[in-house]
Amino acid sequence: MRSTGAIVLLVLVLLVGFAGCAGCGTYNSLVQQDERVTEAWANVETQYQRRADLIDQVVSTVQGQADFESETLQNVIEARSRATSIQVSADDLDDPQALARYQEAQSALGASLGRLLAVSEAYPTLGTNEGFLNLQTQIEGNENRIATARRDYNGAVAGLNGRIRTFPTALIAPIAGVTPRAPFEAEAGAEQAPEITFD
User: Fold this and answer.
1) Residue 190, in any domain of the structure
2) Domain containing 104: what range?
3) Can you give the pTM of this predicted structure?
4) Cβ contacts of 80-83, under 8 Å, gap ≥ 24
5) Which pLDDT tens digit goes with each residue over 57-98?
6) What CATH number has the domain bearing residue 143?
């Protein structure tokens, strides 16, 4: 009888030990996944900051053009100011509204920058300015890096959010303080292809 009780106790100790080790492993991998989301967000912010810095250079270059449309230039300056005033920290990534406000401001900045570059084509001296052409190339590359950083962020968020919803991680996530994160959403109208006409 005594040996049966010892065996039962040993089995219980082993089960508790196994569950504890599994819980620790799940906790650690969950924290690592959460850190990947934070890192991916930092990369998004870095690319948006690079764009803001490039816009400063574009504005300085365009301001040298005496007859450039001041309204277009002012719109870019204001959009940049709005976009850089909205900050989303890693702690705010579980707030879809905060991320939507950030995304909206960045989209408005991108749109006003696009208008500025389109209007600049009407100014031949800008079209031949090597510095301006170099900035256009850098902006194009930066927009591609922004898209890549956003895609990587969404991938990290999808991995984390999917993991949080599975068992036993769903039990451990609240203990670890890890909550689902908000992904970037497609911009309104992005599902419709633009109409292109050749006249």
Assistant:
1) no
2) 39-176
3) 0.82
4) 80/52, 80/55, 80/56, 80/109, 82/108, 82/109, 83/48, 83/52, 83/108, 83/109
5) 988 888 877 577 788 888 899 999 999 999 999 889 999 999
6) 1.20.1440.20
